[in-house]
Specification:
heterodimer, A: 6-stranded mixed β-sheet, 5-stranded antiparallel β-sheet, about 55% strand, globular, B: 7-stranded mixed β-sheet, about 0% helix
Chain lengths: ~110, ~120
């Protein structure tokens, strides 16, 4: 399988703390994407970082990419209970038509 | 704007039965795909389409058929259901900019299938 891996598998924090999730991908990529999935819902696109970018911000989200280590991290700052969800990284080894998703990190943010 | 709509939301089948999961999008997106999500395994690509009349296989296509007769609809057919096909199925669409797929997927809410 070409599936990448997220680390940790599960993360439990208090509101206001920062949450960091890591993704190890397997192929040579042009970019990497992060998605969020609330329980029982579909995935929602969060952010895309291109291979020539090292860091990207979107609101409380900060994504980094290290192509030499084939890894990416997603940082959520000042977390809220509403951030409780699963977070997935996705790589397009075969082009954007064939995104490959990791197994995800389950984040629980406690009030 | 409904986005990506999947029906049914829940379905229980007996082994050997066939059925079709419906997917429709109203965003005029060229690209559509079907994924299945199993616990601990993330999402795996079943089939995808780059436009009306064009489909191709993903990572786990066996036991499934698709067709794309219109831009809006991309149904997934289970030919002879097996317990291994018990899963949550997601349909997704994406659009192009400058003739290139942006890769940003818009997902439906999922169809939860149990095969007994």
């Amino acid at each position: 399988s070409q599936q990448g891996e997220e680390d940790p598998q599960a993360l439990s924090i208090q509101e206001g703390e920062n949450a960091t999730m890591n993704c190890s991908y397997k192929t040579s990529i042009n970019n990497l994407q992060w998605y969020r999935q609330n329980s029982g819902r579909g995935l929602v696109h969060l952010i895309l970082i291109r291979s020539n970018e090292r860091e990207k911000h979107s609101g409380r989200l900060r994504v980094t990419l290290d192509t030499s280590k084939k890894s990416s991290s997603l940082l959520i700052t000042a977390s809220r209970a509403a951030d409780t969800a699963s977070y997935f990284c996705a790589e397009p080894p075969g082009g954007y038509n064939k995104l490959i998703f990791g197994a995800g990190t389950r984040l629980a943010v406690h009030p | 704007n409904a986005g990506v709509t999947q029906t049914p939301k829940f379905q229980v089948l007996k082994t050997g039965q066939s059925m079709t999961l419906q997917c429709a999008q109203d965003m005029n997106h060229e690209y559509m795909s079907w994924y299945r999500q199993d616990p601990g395994m993330g999402l795996r690509l079943i089939h995808y389409s780059v436009g009306a009349g064009i489909t191709d296989q993903g990572e786990v296509p066996n036991g499934y058929n698709v067709s794309r007769s219109t831009t809006e609809d991309f149904p997934l057919r289970l030919l002879s259901a097996a317990p291994s096909q018990t899963s949550v199925y997601f349909c997704a669409s994406s659009y192009s900019q400058g003739g290139v797929n942006t890769g940003e997927l818009f997902f439906g809410e999922g169809s939860r299938l149990t095969v007994l």
